[in-house]
Amino acid sequence: MVEYQGDLVVGGDFTSAGGMTATNLARWNGSAWSSFGNANGAVHALCVDGNDLLVGGAFTQVGGVGTPKVARWNGSAWSGFGAGPGGRVKAIARFDGAIYAGGHLAPDMGYSPFNLMMWTGTAWQPPGSSVDNDVTSLWALGPHLYAGGSFTRAGGLPSSYIAAWSQANVSGIPVDGLIGGTPSFGPIVPNPT
User: Fold this and answer.
1) What is the pTM of this model?
2) Residue whose C-alpha is closest to residue 106's, from 121, 123, 122, 190
3) What is the spatial distance between Cα 56 and Cα 7, in angstroms, rounded to a whole number?
4) Whether 109 contacts 100, CB under 8 Å
5) Are 17 and 10 in contact (CB under 8 A)?
6) CA pair distance 38, 34, nearest whole angstrom
7) pLDDT score, position 32
8) What is the 3-state secondary structure (H, E, C) of the chain?
9) pLDDT tens per residue across span 36-70
10) SS3 state at 76
11) Per-residue pLDDT tens for 75-97?
């Protein structure tokens, strides 16, 4: 869930919100729910990008528009990003002027799963090297894009469930990570001050 233009937008795998028909994507204005695009598959990721809302998941259409796995709402219309990154998008973020999608990605495109893909403006491509298992959370902070998930290698190096990509280095940099167990990364939201 994210705040978008003063409303709360929620994604998931559902058919109604507050008694209103809303398929996998809904909007709460503070007093009532409304449908918001109706995605034909689960929504796993939401990200505000300036005046736009980016949506990621396991869908192929939002609002009746072909939007495989990643969609953009510009305030008045839905649009997609080419053929989509393939697989299932679980996280989405803008970093260093590009849109990144994380998840279990790329099997639909003939690549080995890279699990992190970057929109170049015309196509989805892996950003150099990637991670060896699913990315479930992305966050841009300063000069780094952080990824969290169930991976143990990033950029060909050991990494314990968390890694960073820098503007100057498109390979994953392991971050002194988490040890033991299986961490769970949900959506990351800014801490309100």
Assistant:
1) 0.86
2) 123
3) 19
4) no
5) yes
6) 10
7) 96
8) CEEECCEEEEECCCCEECCEECCCEEEECCCCEEECCCECCCEEEEEEECCEEEEEECCCEECCEECCCEEEECCCCEEECCCCCCCEEEEEEEECCEEEEEEECCHHHCCCCCCEEEECCCCEECCCCCECCCEEEEEEECCEEEEEECCCEECCEECCCEEEEECCCCCCEECCCCCCCCCCCCCCCCCCC
9) 999 999 999 999 999 999 999 999 999 999 999 99
10) coil
11) 999 999 998 888 899 999 999 88
- As given in the structure block, the two tokens for residue 94 are 């803008």
The length of the chain is 193
How far is 65 from 92, CA to CA, in rounded Å?
Answer: 19
Tokens 């299986």, located at residue: 182
pLDDT tens column, 16-28: 999 999 999 999 9
Pull the structure tokens for residue 138: 């992305």
* Residue with tokens 């978008």, as numbered in its chain: 4
Question: What amino acid occupies position 179?
Answer: I
